[in-house]
Design the sequence.
């Protein structure tokens, strides 16, 4: 079994002018994800996935 | 997992997939995940995940618009006073190297509690199922009630199918995972405060708070699927296995009957207390004979008995049914590490 930690910044559903910004950004590091979330005022989708 | 704050990111560590929704200050909006004894992902659907995502994004936007982003209030889950990492569990720190798997976190916590003399039977049953209270949620929504069991605690509380649970005690709810975390945190002997929204036929919605009084032992669920079962501080004192269909047929047992073969006796513990012998075939535990895997059999013992109780089993020994009994042993384990 190998655990992996995956992080994603979710973009809001609110309309924005830049379509490319609608896709989530995945980060392997929570600290970095929090920095980006703070800058962009977005929530974080944090996944714990353990593969047995 | 090694450096992760397991106090903040508290989840059912026996599961293989769990998600959190949080803000940039790590305030948690919602937990999504959880399983039961049937399948690893039967309680997770794409529709319910999207439902939780929509609710979290809407809440996040509302808070942003109101200038309340990153504020610790009732919108976010209660957070622990102090950080805790797996390395803060002494037995794990001293005996474990390499990656820490999710289930090992729970296992080391069980071992540590046992070695510290702080193990409680309550520790056995994490993340109770809402069905234990009489509530079944709509799997494609997550926290909208699909069914209320008649004459259950939920029925007595006044909850109805169609109600959407918004809060359980101090936990804001956007998923079944949130409900289960709230139940996990709740005291077994205390009533639960439930906030629910009910829509009328005309489409109007009203929110109300109700008190739900749980029945005795409401936190108990099957432990047979849990990897951490092997680290519960119970000295079984024997190795065994569940007979297969053909072996049961040979023994003259129905396919749906309990049949646990005692392969060997190992040291002291439950087996010697009860008087089990090598070669015994256990066909009844606590007056029940339903078919069980060996892990489910272990789980049933833990659900039926605790230290100082008298354990009763019926075995087939030399072709005859023999009823034997003895004391359930004190919580104890010699193990200091987890494989």
Sequence:
């Amino acid at each position: 079994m190998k655990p992996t930690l995956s992080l994603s910044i979710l973009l809001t559903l609110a309309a924005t002018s830049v379509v490319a910004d609608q896709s989530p950004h995945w980060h392997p590091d929570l600290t970095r994800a929090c920095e980006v979330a703070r800058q962009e005022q977005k929530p974080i989708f944090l996944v714990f996935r353990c593969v047995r | 997992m090694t450096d992760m704050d397991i106090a903040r990111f508290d989840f059912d560590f026996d599961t293989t997939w769990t998600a959190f929704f949080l803000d940039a200050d790590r305030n948690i909006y919602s937990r999504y995940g959880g399983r039961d004894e049937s399948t690893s992902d039967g309680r997770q659907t794409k529709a319910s995940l999207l439902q939780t995502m929509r609710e979290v994004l809407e809440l996040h936007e509302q808070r942003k618009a109101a200038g309340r982003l990153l504020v610790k209030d009732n919108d976010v889950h209660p957070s622990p006073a102090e950080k805790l990492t797996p390395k803060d569990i002494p037995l794990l720190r001293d005996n474990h190297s390499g990656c820490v798997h999710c289930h090992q976190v729970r296992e080391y916590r069980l071992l540590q509690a046992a070695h510290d003399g702080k193990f409680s039977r309550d520790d056995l049953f994490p993340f109770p199922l809402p069905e234990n209270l009489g509530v079944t949620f709509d799997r494609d929504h997550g926290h909208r009630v699909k069914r209320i069991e008649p004459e259950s605690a939920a029925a007595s509380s006044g909850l109805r199918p169609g109600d959407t649970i918004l809060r359980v005690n101090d936990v804001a709810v956007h998923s079944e995972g949130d409900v289960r975390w709230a139940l996990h945190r709740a005291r077994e002997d205390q009533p639960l405060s439930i906030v629910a929204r009910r829509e009328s036929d005309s489409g109007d919605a009203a929110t109300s708070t109700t008190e739900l009084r749980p029945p005795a032992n409401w936190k108990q669920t099957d432990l047979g699927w849990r990897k951490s079962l092997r680290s519960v501080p119970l000295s079984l004192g024997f190795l065994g296995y569940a007979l297969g269909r053909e072996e049961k047929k040979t023994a003259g047992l129905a396919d749906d009957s309990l049949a646990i073969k005692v392969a060997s006796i190992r040291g002291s513990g439950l087996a010697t207390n009860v008087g089990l012998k090598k070669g015994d075939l256990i066909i009844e535990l606590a007056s029940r004979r339903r078919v069980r895997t060996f892990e489910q059999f272990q789980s049933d013992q833990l659900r039926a008995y605790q230290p100082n109780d008298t354990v009763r089993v019926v075995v087939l020994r030399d072709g005859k049914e023999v009823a034997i009994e003895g004391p359930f042993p004190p919580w104890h384990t010699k193990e200091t590490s987890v494989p």
Remarks:
- Chain B has three domains: 18-123, 130-212, 234-327.
- The longest helix of chain B spans residues 46-65.
- Residues 126 and 184 of chain B are 6 Å apart (CA to CA).
